[in-house]
Specification:
single chain, about 290 residues, alpha/beta, Rossmann fold, six-stranded mixed sheet, four-stranded antiparallel sheet, about 30% helix, disordered C terminus
Amino acid sequence: RKVLLRVDKEPATPGDVVLDVKNLKVVDDQGVERLRGIDLQVRAGEILGIAGVAGNGQSELLEVLGGYEDATGTVTLNGAPIDLTGKYSDGRSRRDRGIAHVPEDRQREGLIMDFAAWENTAFGYHRDAAYTSGLLSNNAAIKADTAEKMERFDVRPPHPHLAAKNFSGGNQQKIVLAREIERNPDLLLIGQPTRGVDIGAIEFIHQQIVALRDQGKAILLVSVELEEILGLADRVAVMFDGQIMGERLTTETDEKELGLLMAGITDTDKPHTIAEIEANLAQAHGNPHKEI
């Protein structure tokens, strides 16, 4: 059956600014500027979608906010600054501040594939009081918690001892989501939430994201699927060549306008030739002569 990418949801009621990013810049090991002065805000109770052709800085944005990429600029969470370099610029510090992260690649960054589901449930949170007994891990408590999460997130099969590599892609993603969403974060970073998952899991994952928004949490969503962005997000910011080309309310835009912004064209009301759009897209991939 047809996948329902448009989720039934009530209009957002945004609250205070949770995430405030100003002039964020990233230069990679080759000296290439991947983020070129990003400014954005995400408020409590809303989903900000980041759209763009893959390779235009979305991944670097998530990596900086997730704590495993250095950057310059200013990032605040609930008004308090976050370190972008140094000892306290890491995933653990981000989690301690109330940031949860569902990475774009669940198998390389979200899970340890040879470890059991119950071990992955505690991945990154193994020092929490609920998971420890003195100086040691409380494995019985972790396994019991994993069984409860598997039931709530409909992970199949519901076996905490099964290795992560033996679950389907959709169920692997549910394990990551259960681990991050149930930490009650102030901000959820989520990249490509439904990449490579089955129809039923797509709809379930969308429902969980919207439910978190309705609890008053801030969500930053990165997806290459425009239909997914339009169905989930309340606002969308479009990235091109490491910059934000524009922001739109999803109720006041469409795929055509967003597609032009993704090609680096800000004057979306003006007619544009195919050659102009192709040239801009080729620039986005770092090769002005590349065929699209």
